[in-house]
Amino acid sequence: MLKHRWNHNTNYHRLVLESLPSGARTALDVGTGDGLLAGELREKVPEVVAIDSDSDVLDRARASGADVRWVHGDVMTHSLELAHYDLVAAIATVHHLPELSEALTRFADLAKPGGVVVVIGCARSSGIGDHLIDAVGVLQHQVLSRTRGFWQHTATTVTRFPHTYEQVRHTAADSLPGVRWRRLPLFRYALTWTKSG
């Protein structure tokens, strides 16, 4: 089944799902791509909106049949309801957006008070610590791709990321005071932030 396909992004869906606030009623999947996360969120949340600027990939997501509101548009400019979502999630998306700090601020504006913003992102390694974690990621990739199979998503791929992990960490701290930062294996980081109120 589509939702069980594995790659470096789907590996971290569980981090998003585990971050859902208790009693969550609304969720926004930013840069939904093939729509796998949106489908998983819909199993737990009554109202899920999934937005993507790529109409072709969004059409493939719609074909999943998930009871999700699929939106073709740019999250930065589309008329989404402010302070509405219990969860705003973005996986491998923010490096496609023009300005990281503006993207994080936009996500915060879309979250309701008590809502959670979760970003699983990609960045460039710049220090020995990053390279050591990358080495773990290489080994993890080898094991998991052999045991689970590696599925290549259909969304646009970026080969050169605009920020280093360290730059992301500092920008996130400035944009989302109190954000929790984690460097993950499989060449990812996680940002988790709860909106006060």
From TrEMBL:
Pfam families: Methyltransf_11 (PF08241). One of its GO terms (molecular function) is S-adenosylmethionine-dependent methyltransferase activity. Coiled coil: none annotated. The keyword Methyltransferase applies. The keyword Glycoprotein does not apply. One of its GO terms (biological process) is methylation. Residues 28-119 form the Methyltransferase type domain. PANTHER family: TRANS-ACONITATE 2-METHYLTRANSFERASE (PTHR43861:SF1), TRANS-ACONITATE 2-METHYLTRANSFERASE-RELATED (PTHR43861). This is Class I SAM-dependent methyltransferase.
